[in-house]
Amino acid sequence: MLTKTQIKDVIPHREPFLLIDEVEAIEPGKSIRAKTHVDADASYFKGHFPDFPVMPGVLIVEALAQAGAVLLLREERFKGRKVLFAGLDDCRFKRMVKPGDTLTLHVELTKMRGVIGKADAIARVGDELACKATMTFAVAPD
């Protein structure tokens, strides 16, 4: 549904920190499904860990947050703004993410009050759960 170029029109993130490659589905104001193709040449694998490359958990969470930001910033009332982390609860990592994996990111908006909201987020590799969390976020003022 959205290519990487189109994603760049929605969120301000850029390489090497743009972590989502495509958006497969989006239900405005409700949910988004996006993908991250974990590139073996990603710079973080040089140090995490050179002999046992694993995608850092914080980057998995950041990929989920970027998908959530796309969901919110596609709404007309938030267009052109930025979305900031305000909290992370019940975060669990269930599977290592390695070079060559494709992460499917699903973020579902569960509560929105003004510019503050909550979302349930899940990252999977195939059918296997890699990470789940509840995110709290704030839409920054213009």
Principal-axes shape call: globular
Query: Structural class, from secondary structure content?
Result: alpha+beta
Binned strand content: 35-45%
Helix content: 10-25%
Description of the molecule:
The protein has helices spanning 4-8, 57-73; strands spanning 22-27, 31-37, 83-93, 102-113, 116-125, 128-139. It has one domain (4-139): Hotdog Thioesterase (Thiol Ester Dehydrase, Chain A). Strands 1-2-4-5-6-3 form a 6-stranded antiparallel β-sheet, covered by helices on one side. It is an alpha+beta fold. The chain has 2 helices and 6 strands, in the order αββαββββ. The model has no long low-confidence stretch (mean pLDDT 97). It starts with a helix and ends with a strand.
Quick structural summary:
With 142 residues, the chain is an alpha+beta fold. Helices cover 15% and strands 41% of the residues. Strands 1-2-4-5-6-3 form a six-stranded antiparallel β-sheet, covered by helices on one side.
Features:
142 residues, alpha+beta, Thiol Ester Dehydrase, Chain A, 6-stranded antiparallel β-sheet, 2 helices
Tell me the layout of helices and strands:
Blueprint: H1 4-8, E1 22-27, E2 31-37, H2 57-73, E3 83-93, E4 102-113, E5 116-125, E6 128-139
Antiparallel strand pairs: 1-2, 2-4, 3-6, 4-5, 5-6
